[in-house]
Specification:
This protein is globular. Strands 1, 2, 3, 4, 5 and 6 form a 6-stranded mixed beta sheet that branches. With about 260 residues, it is of the alpha/beta class. The termini are far apart. It is built from 10 helices and 6 strands.
């Protein structure tokens, strides 16, 4: 059993836990850590050459928190140092070790992506939820989220991640990648995820987020025109999907009666 630090004792006397702490405790208990680390192990460095690699489970925990809280490689490293809840989830003891740095996480993330391990883990989660009857079928909500990546070239390779690109959203520029997700409309559980560079438009991945038994798809105005794409027109099921997409704000006509009213 891990020995408690003064910080652990101090935090144990709080009146309540934060939502983040409750969520991470639940995930810690639910996730089949041994099974998931065994999925990663065949692709993970053995440590026979160079410095010993970080523990697989520790890297997996850091990788998952990065995705859950939409953090960059540097951002999740800094947040773990700042957050007691995240440090506890990492099972890390600062007396003996430090949080893996952003470059180490970057290499782990590439390992997960290159070998499609993230998809294997995600499919395992979806299968468990489906067997438990927690996922409904018939409708999907599509969405896309930007994940920032370091723009600095002050690293070992001396360059930016070649898979990352910049894009403009509103009046802000972002550099990184984009996660496209299909969410079960009935339960709110994510059933499909794809990843692209940030400059790929949302509608490009739409068809990949729709299940075979979906009848309706919901999305924001960024998905306008998705059904005009060839992958929809040439597929019998996709062409029959009812797309319920929000109207672009710029296309809403304001009548003379309401002009000038704040």
């Amino acid at each position: 059993m891990k020995q408690q630090t003064f910080t652990d004792v101090e935090y144990s006397n709080r009146k309540r836990k934060t939502k983040r702490e409750e969520f991470l405790e639940a995930m810690d208990n639910i996730i089949p850590w041994s099974y998931w680390t065994d999925i990663i192990r065949p692709y993970y460095p053995s440590g026979k050459r160079g410095r010993p690699p970080k523990d697989i489970e520790m890297m997996l925990r850091m990788y998952l928190m990065q995705n859950w809280f939409n953090l960059s490689d540097v951002g999740v490293e800094d947040t773990i140092y700042d957050s007691f809840a995240m440090r506890t989830f990492m099972h890390i003891d600062f007396l003996t070790e430090q949080v893996p740095d952003a470059t180490t996480l970057l290499h782990f993330r590439h390992l997960m992506e290159t070998n499609k391990i993230g998809k294997k883990i995600f499919d395992d989660v979806r299968e468990r939820l489906d067997k438990s009857g927690l996922i409904m079928h018939g409708g999907t909500v599509v969405d896309a989220t930007l994940i920032a990546a370091p723009t600095s070239t002050k690293n070992i390779d001396g360059k930016r991640d070649p898979e990352m690109h910049q894009t403009k959203k509103g009046n802000e520029w972002y550099f990184g990648m984009k996660v496209h997700s299909g969410v079960d409309a009935g339960s709110g559980y994510v059933h499909t995820i794809t990843g692209t560079s940030a400059n790929v438009h949302d509608i490009v991945e739409t068809s990949k987020l729709i299940r075979e038994d979906d009848e309706v798809v919901y999305g924001d105005s960024g998905y306008s025109g998705a059904q005009k794409r060839n992958e929809f027109k040439e597929d019998e099921h996709l062409s029959s999907i009812e797309m319920r997409v929000n109207v672009r704000p710029s296309s809403i006509k304001v009548t003379e009666k309401y002009k000038g009213i704040n």
